Amino acid sequence: MYKYRGAIFQVTILVGLMMCLGCQPGSSGNTGGNAGGNTPSKLTILNVSYDPTREFYTEFNQEFETHWLAKSGQSLTVDQSHGGGGKQARAVIDGLKADVVTLALSYDIDQIAEKTKAFPRDWQKRLPNNSCPYTSTIVFLVRKGNPKQIKDWNDLTRSDVQVITPNPKTSGGARYNYLAAWGYALRQPNGNDETAFEFVKSIFKNVPVLDSGARGSTTTFIQREIGDVLLTWENEAFLSVNEFGPQDLDIVIPSMSIIAEPPVTVVDENAKANNALDVATAYLEYLYSPVGQKLAAKHFYRPYSPEHADPADLARFPKLELFSIDEVFGGWTKAQTTHFNDGGVFDRIYAVEKP
Amino acid sequence: MSRTFRQYSVIPGFGLTLGYTITYLSLIVLIPLSMLFFRTAGMGWERFWSTISDPRVVASYKLTFGASLIATLINVVFGGIVAWTLVRYKFPGKTLIDAMVDLPFAIPTAVSGIALTAVYSKNGWIGQYLEPMGFKIAFAYPGVVVAMTFIGLPFVVRTLQPAIEDLHKENEEASASLGATRLQTFRYVILPAILPSLLTGFAMAFARALGEYGSIVFISGNLPMKTEITTWIITQKLDQYDTEGATAIALVMLLSSFAVLFTINAIQWWISQRHRGVS
Amino acid sequence: MSGDAKVARNDSQLPGSQQPASDLQADVKIRQPATRFRGATEEPVWIRYSLIFLTVSFLVFFLFLPLLSVFAEAFRKGVNAYLAAFNDRAALAAIKLTLITAAIAVPLNIVFGLAASWSIAKFEFWGKSFLLTLIDLPFAVSPVISGLIFVLLFGAQGLLGPWLTSQGIQIIFAVPGIVIATIFVTFPFVAREIIPLMHEQGTEEEQAAITLGANGWQTFWYVTLPNVRWALLYGVILCNARAMGEFGAVSVVSGHLRGKTNTLPLHVEILHNEFNFVAAFAVASLLALLGVVTLAAKIYVESRVRSTSTSEDLSSLDH
Predict the structure, then answer these.
(1) pLDDT in tens, B133-171
(2) Which letter does DSSP use for residue A136 in this model?
(3) Which pLDDT value is given to residue C255?
(4) Which residues in A lie closer than 8 A to residue B241 (C-beta atoms)?
(5) Which three-class secondary structure state does DSSP give residue C1?
(6) Confidence band (pLDDT; 50, 70, 90) for C248?
(7) Cα B273 from Cα B213, distance rounded (Å)
(8) Best interface-test mutation with B: which of C7, C137, C160, C193 has the largest number of B CBs within 10 A?
(9) Mean pLDDT throughout B160-186?
(10) Is C222 in contact with C209 (CB distance < 8 Å)?
(11) B42 touches chain C (CB under 8 A)
């Protein structure tokens, strides 16, 4: 009697376990697409992106959903996923069914291509401008009135200045911060790798907090009032001033900076499995359209085709000398392995600091 | 006599329940955790050793274990006082305070981290007074300890409370009537009786502090060699697509927490066996 | 000591219940002349007050102020802004997902907790400390690792990934992954609450029941379960609180699809990252309120224990 009941009990549990393990193949919304015919009337695609693009893509997605409905009669939902760039790329590698990825740097997308083989390795050639529909740069955000008189990169090495940046190991934006400082040092008279190392090291000596991502650093700088200057994306700086009020913050443009190129691509295999290759491609192409370009400029990204943007939006972008990763560092893969991987230059900055 | 009696038991269901326990344990805990061994095995001894003995990683072990130990000791002392006060004394607001003890448990760690940082950073409610006095809490070593104390407190208080309630006051009375001071009674009568629970509380709070991540990344500042906890190093490895490196360090963490837990469990089980044997 | 007395003593292990001894103590005190000093089992007044002071100030600094800051931030822009945070499709979906997750994870861990405590507390066997430690292990595992191991197992690059993909089953970055990670994280709670109590209670009553002809199931249902019911309930409350509040592990396996794979804690993070601090803290305060519900449940549990155990305690005094 007891054994019999126990068995029933056990079977119930096993069934329960199996139910929660196996019976929800369609729950992610994107895997269900293969059941429909050639042109299902309802479709969901997923755009996996990094942190600072939330506001831009929220608006762009609505525009594109309307556009797509009018064009093809198909009702479309674009899902968004945001997070740190590296973490997001890893999620796609580990099976997050992204139809398109729009990340902060090409290195992360290269890694997806290499590990999943879901799209060709030369994906950057598929769309104009190395698949970067918009660009940005690194600027300084300071307290109102710039009390510490921070004007350019060399001010960041002053011992009375506290610098806030995220951790280059986990944040794409922080890698741009680091490389921008390095590039500035290289372009000074007699600049070489040695002087650049010392220059960047003395900046990181002034860093009291290394948050994991750009948004964390912004919170530390603005909400916690830690530090005198925040190194951040140009679009993030504008957004912060908008969100938290121009009465507290000023943007400082350094004499030169790095051009940040956040690229986009279709994850072919995922999009095919979702019957959404067309719409995913069209989605990215729409980023280059006048509508997409105008929206990008509105959300403080420098558009690839400025002629489509609102001149008032364009006027906000100051002119400054810009250098690219490819010019100065020989591409992202090289920059990553030299500077940021374990045992790289960034580790040396901290390794030698403490005996 | 009771020992042999328990070894041979008339109670049924041993096979079924132990079988089920081990099956479920394997499915949910052991098989998934074995993935750490599985992935680490591929990297070879040389790389494994150089990964886990890297100066930055070693610095993070020191921080994680050191701060966990400090936080747990704070919790054992203050948590003990809290538990004692809540059980033995009556004062206004006791129910509210008793309730609050559980809250670190229900609140997501990230929220705790943000809240603690907000309160202890230099413009926060507490930090604004401490920082001018030279006590930097948020974004420094003490911040890590504060976060670990916060999340570990319920474990100590909640395991001690029942033990204190279960104390036989007759023993304390006997001790007092034999001329012991209150302090002696505490040292020789009360402390031994609550020791097993104190150990359990210590083990759980310590283990929890070792593994804590969500709240600490907000408050620690994550400076290499200074305020990086080991889990944060693991996260960074993952972000560099170095899964093997991450699992290697995770394995070290897992094995050391297992060793700590196992030692304390064995001691505790031994004490309670002895205790039962005597009574 | 008779079995009856033993039950009473064990029941009284739960927080808040009264001791027979303390009842006696109260009687003794009343009979004492007013000029007598404090009772032999009490601390001097100044120690008592300093301990209470220490308790209150420790909890104020470590618990109360951080928690208050959550509510202060949540209500910074008034009640309407607070309520608006919940009147949102994504927030409601997050609440729903959190409830579903807890509804699956908690019952599974209850069954496990009962089975594990029966086998561990009622029988002697070799390697028990080892097994206990394995059960504790999910406590000590960092949430990031808890998430990672499931990615390594079920992820596209993981051990079972290719097979799962070919079957069209999505575990990671979907609801099943979130549920499994939650089960892992809340794994020890129920078992950990029951095992010490069952161990303390020994096996005499079960043996008596078996001897009297009850089968195993009846023994469990009518003898063991009532003896541990409050510990069980307390374990369930803790397990549930943790299941709803888990952040780290779930964050790794979730994929962060708004309205689809976002639990409440993840929703807090998203809102915080959108600089929507009021809404973020409002949702966080909802999770803190869960703690208050936990409290209400606990007070109820205690009052039940008190009313049942005092009568038993009194009767046990006669032995």
Answers:
(1) 888 888 999 999 999 999 999 889 988 887 888 787 788
(2) E
(3) 84
(4) 86, 90, 93, 111, 115
(5) coil
(6) confident
(7) 35
(8) C137
(9) 82
(10) yes
(11) no
Q: How far apart are CA B209 and CA B230, in angstroms?
A: 12
Question: pLDDT digits over B38-89, tens only?
Answer: 889 888 899 999 999 988 899 999 999 999 999 999 999 999 999 999 988 8
Could you state, in order of their start, the residue ranges of all structural domains in chain B?
Answer: 13-42, 44-278
Residue A2 contacts B, CB cutoff 8 Å? yes
- How many Å lie between the alpha carbon of C153 and the closest alpha carbon of chain A? 10
Residue C53 distance to chain A (closest CA, Å): 30
- As a whole number, mean pLDDT of residues A17-36 equals 40
Q: What does pTM read for this prediction?
A: 0.83
DSSP, residue by residue, A42-94: EEEEEEEE-GGGHHHHHHHHHHHHHHHHHHHS-EEEEEEE---HHHHHHHHHT
pLDDT band per the 50, 70, 90 thresholds, residue C167 = confident
Q: What angle do CA A278, A284, A290 make, to 5 degrees?
A: 120
**Coil, helix or strand for C269?**
helix
Q: Residue A350: which of B13, B121, B225 has the nearest Cβ?
A: B225
Q: C273 and A16: CB-CB below 8 Å?
A: no
Residue whose pair of structure tokens reads 């390697």 in the numeric block: C127
**Of A28, A55, A243, which is closest to C170 when you measure between CB atoms?**
A28
Q: Which CATH superfamily is domain B44-278 in?
A: MetI-like (1.10.3720.10)
pLDDT score at A71: 92
Contacts B137 to C, Cβ<8 Å: none
How many angstroms separate the CA of residue C213 from the nearest CA in chain B?
12
Domains along chain A with CATH numbers? 42-132+262-288 (3.40.190.10), 135-260+320-350 (3.40.190.10)
